[in-house]
Amino acid sequence: MKTAGQHTPIMDLEPWNQVHEGISQRARRKGVPTKGRDPLDFPLSGRLFWHDGRAFTCFDSSPRQGRRYRYYLGPVK
After folding, report:
1. 45, 15, 51, 8: which is closest to 59 by C-alpha?
2. What is the spatial distance between Cα 22 and Cα 27, in angstroms, rounded to a whole number?
3. pTM score above 0.70
4. Amino acid 6: pLDDT
5. What's residue 53's pLDDT?
6. pLDDT value at position 30?
7. CA distance 61 to 68
8. What is the pLDDT of residue 32?
9. CB–CB of 55/69 below 8 Å?
10. What is the largest CA-CA distance in the chain?
């Protein structure tokens, strides 16, 4: 029996749950990388420091025309 505001679902619940499970597993969460980094991508990681002792941040760009750019960023003030 339906109450006010309820309607017939447009898709089955099982595929809906599978899709949302996949989305949540791939979701980026602040400060938590979605995948591990290859140490060869950033050979100076943990070895490059700013004049006040803060480490540089490794940055990996989105692919552009089949190329990916990797670089180090200094600390943001």
Report:
1. 45
2. 9
3. no
4. 82
5. 84
6. 57
7. 6
8. 57
9. no
10. 69
Cα separation values, 43 from 24, 37, 66, 72, 77, Å = 31, 11, 22, 11, 25
Instruction: Tell which residue, 71, 22, 16, 69, has the closest CA to residue 42.
Output: 71
Phi/psi-derived region of residue 23, left when phi > 0, alpha when psi is between -120 and 50, beta in every other case: alpha
Angle at 21 between CA 12 and CA 15, to 5 degrees: 15
Q: Which amino acid is at 38?
A: D
List the chain residues with pLDDT less than 70.
1-2, 26-40, 76-77
Do 56 and 50 meet the contact criterion of CB atoms below 8 Å apart? yes
